[in-house]
Design goal:
Layout: H1 16-19, H2 24-45, H3 48-59, E1 64-68, H4 71-85, E2 90-92, H5 95-98, E3 111-115, H6 125-133, E4 137-142, H7 148-152, E5 155-158, H8 174-193, H9 198-204, H10 208-214, H11 217-220, E6 228-230, H12 235-245, E7 249-253, E8 259-264, H13 268-271, H14 280-283, E9 291-292, H15 297-303, E10 311-317, E11 320-328, H16 329-333
Parallel strand pairs: 1-2, 1-3, 3-4, 4-5, 6-7, 9-10
Antiparallel strand pairs: 7-8, 10-11
Amino acid sequence: MKTRFDSDPFEPVATEAVTRSIPPRKIGREVVIAESAGLAALAEALDASFDAAVSLLHSGGGRVFVSGVGKSGHVARKIASTLSSTGRPACFIHPVEAMHGDLGMLCPGDVLIVLSNSGASMELRGLVDHAQRLSARIVAIGARPDSPLMRVADIALVIPDGPEACPVNIAPTTSTTMMLALGDALAVAVMSARGIGVERIRLLHPGGPIGERLRVAEDVMRTDALPLVGVEDPMPEVLLCMARSGLGIAGVVALGGGLVGVIEADRLPAVARDLAGERAGFLMNRHAWVARRETPLDEIARNLGVGGSDAALVIAGENDRRPIGVVSARNLGTSGAWPA
């Protein structure tokens, strides 16, 4: 007697796409078009419930948990991660593990975001029931407004109930793409409401290419033995200062300590034949580019070498021209990112 396991369920079969020799990229484009249509419908569907969810996540004093099972669970993990990285701490709670002790993570006043396209996944019931007993606020994301999950939610975010992008309209594709986009929309709206800017993101995301891009002069500048000279200092002293630093530049400061110009070694032959009798103030470049403590490293990288120098002085601020550091190309080379 033949059983259901007598054949390989993953053995390739002669599908219509294969028999008609449809190019894979054509199928890929159709998937992207279908999911794009779902996203467009989702954008139009956002209503006051979205506003309420953002308000709850912004002003709610409790913690935020995100849950789901299957593909929705994978999306839930990503939403929790995005909320955390944009200033609203959140964590994923697995609905099955919750029934084996992790329910203790939830407390009264917490917010539970639950993802389920059908809104009827049995694995979610215990977690949702427990959240209700604790009077935790439930935000449900799904496509069936009359489903058990959406009916018990404090806030129901309904995604358009359109076809999946897979050829048999079963594999979660369009629906999970819409869930993912809705999670991003929530995170960014909450980020905006909480006034989270680059400074906070820089603290939350110091690693990788993103973290490297967010680093600023203050993070890498050298603050000791700065190559600084006075306006009236003779050029032999200036050259000695530049040689000691090995940076090819010297900042020229006034009596009050403010930077008034920069002398760059690569420009000296073009401006003076005999340096011995000259003063720093005569040969300095009053318009040399300098960084501020908050100048991003990518901006510094773009400007290094423009005037022939591989180093730039860092001043305290736009209205405070006291030199506080120096950044060289060597500083920018110590990156955690792969080289371009």
